[in-house]
């Protein structure tokens, strides 16, 4: 509706843009337009009068005929001038009417022929879905959108996710498969979600097809979280415990949610125990090498973009390079953050090898960790301590 209001306003503006100059011209015509024709008529009259005068002098026109012929010439001139002006006035009156009618007709006609009226209606239908409070109504509306615009794979992907959340895995799989086809298998998200739907629908059993989809997703996006999670599960089920550990350890620094991190650490410990390690060894020293902080924002910073990036990392007191790092965003704060050896940046560098570290939090509005807008640190944090230290990002430390 807003689109058509705006379009109507622009059409009205275009009509005024054309009509106002024409109206002004009608009221104040350029003198030259009329004078040019009048001059021509006068020149013709002069020529004819001179010819009449010569004929009178030559005796071919009598004295009695001369005034009659002269009056006739003058009358004809007046008639022609009046006719020309009347035609111009009628024409000038018709031009604004024709232009006012043609502008909206041509504009709307061309829009429906060449423009994006269908796309506008498409976007309006999607916006309506987001305002619906009834879940059944929203699903039905989303299905209608997908049926009307089958090429819209983004709405189809949203519909597939809705089916997943409702436990309708058959329709979810069909929708994800179509999205994968439409995107030519070039996007990791629908490929990995298809693998996830197949895995759940199959009673949490790994198949060759699911594993192929996992590999396909990771080839496109090596750090895709759903694909890494499934890759760890597939390796664990195949008794490739080292492969499961590699996948889940890679996933750990990408997982900010504490519950998700605890589940991953439990999976890593279980995989290590299956490899024949003792309970203490299977823990991998994670509990002994961890550093806990509570990250929050100083209220004095005011409102910051929810998408602004936050990087929390531990480093040696005498070296600037991070040992372990967790990426977050402003939307995640405040948050308890645990840094451990599963998040190390380089092989051979671990928290376990340090008794104390500095913990730094950097906030970047542009996402550039090397040039943060705000930076806060706490020094000499004991590695392995169960105590969580407060880390408040403020402008004072910037």
From TrEMBL:
Q: What is this protein's name?
A: Formate-dependent nitrite reductase complex subunit NrfG
Top-level division of the source organism's lineage: Bacteria
Q: Which UniProt keywords apply?
A: Cytochrome c-type biogenesis, Membrane, Repeat, TPR repeat, Transmembrane, Transmembrane helix
Which part of the chain is the Cytochrome c-type biogenesis protein H Ig-like domain?
Answer: 291-393
What Gene3D superfamilies does the entry give? Tetratricopeptide repeat domain (1.25.40.10)
Q: Name one GO biological process term.
A: cytochrome complex assembly
Task: State the InterPro entries in the record.
Answer: C-type_cytochrome_biogenesis, Cyt_c_biogenesis_CcmI, Ig_CycH, TPR-like_helical_dom_sf, TPR_CcmH_CycH
Gene name, per UniProt, is nrfG
User: Which is one Gene Ontology cellular component term of this protein?
Assistant: plasma membrane
Annotated localization: Cell envelope
Which Pfam families does the entry link to? Ig_CycH, TPR_CcmH_CycH
């Amino acid at each position: 509706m807003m689109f058509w209001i705006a379009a109507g306003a622009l059409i009205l503006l275009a009509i005024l843009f054309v009509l106002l100059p024409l109206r002004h011209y009608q009221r104040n015509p350029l003198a030259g337009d009329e004078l040019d024709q009048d001059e021509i008529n006068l020149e013709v009259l002069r020529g004819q009068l001179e010819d009449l005068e010569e004929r009178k002098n030559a005796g071919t026109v009598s004295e009695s005929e001369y005034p009659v012929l002269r009056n006739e010439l003058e009358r004809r001139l007046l008639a022609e001038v009046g006719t020309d002006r009347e035609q111009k006035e009628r024409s000038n009156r018709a031009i604004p009417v024709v232009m006012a009618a043609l502008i909206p007709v041509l504009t709307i006609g061309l829009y429906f022929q060449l423009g994006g009226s269908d796309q506008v209606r498409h976007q309006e239908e999607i916006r309506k879905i987001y305002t619906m409070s009834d879940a059944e109504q929203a699903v039905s509306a989303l299905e209608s959108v997908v049926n009307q615009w089958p090429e819209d794979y983004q709405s189809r992907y949203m519909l597939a996710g809705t089916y997943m959340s409702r436990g309708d895995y058959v329709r979810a799989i069909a929708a994800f498969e179509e999205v994968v086809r439409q995107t030519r298998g070039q996007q990791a998200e629908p490929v990995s979600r298809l693998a996830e739907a197949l895995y759940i629908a199959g009673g949490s059993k790994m198949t060759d097809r699911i594993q192929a989809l996992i590999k396909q997703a990771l080839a496109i996006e090596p750090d895709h979280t759903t694909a890494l999670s499934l890759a760890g599960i597939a390796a664990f089920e195949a008794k490739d415990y080292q492969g499961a550990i590699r996948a889940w350890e890679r996933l750990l620094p990408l997982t900010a949610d504490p519950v998700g991190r605890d589940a991953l650490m439990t999976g890593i410990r279980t995989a290590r125990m299956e490899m024949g390690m003792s309970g203490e060894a299977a823990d991998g020293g994670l509990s002994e090498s961890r550093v806990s902080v509570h990250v929050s924002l100083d209220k004095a910073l005011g409102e910051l973009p929810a998408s602004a990036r936050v990087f929390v990392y531990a480093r040696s007191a005498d070296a600037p390079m991070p040992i372990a790092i967790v990426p977050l965003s402003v939307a995640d704060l405040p948050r308890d953050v645990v840094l451990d050896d599963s998040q190390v940046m380089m092989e051979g560098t671990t928290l376990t090898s340090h008794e104390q570290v500095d913990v730094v939090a950097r906030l970047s509005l542009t996402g550039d960790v090397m040039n943060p807008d705000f930076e806060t640190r706490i020094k000499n944090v004991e590695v392995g301590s169960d105590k969580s230290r407060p880390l408040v990002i403020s402008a004072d430390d910037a």
